[in-house]
Amino acid sequence: METSSPLGVEEWAFTQSTVEGEEDLDSLQRVLAMDNKRLETRNQQLAAENQQLKEENDRLKESMTARTLELEQQSQQ
Predict the structure, then answer these.
(1) Which domain of life does the protein's organism represent (predicted)?
(2) CA dihedral 11, 16, 18, 24 (to 10 degrees)
(3) Taking all residues of the chain, what is their mean pLDDT, rounded to a whole number?
């Protein structure tokens, strides 16, 4: 029976082909450690991207607010 996994395709295939006994637990732990490192790196990348998007969002909100005030002042003249 096939199951889904958070591991990459290569890691999952390797894990499925090697998990046959206790001696292979070290191999599995190494694969999981590699995948964990990859996920931590991706998480850091996404956190940095999220921060940039928040900053851009704040900048755009300020710009829209200023433009709205400007248009309101023009319409009152």
Answers:
(1) Eukaryota
(2) 80
(3) 84
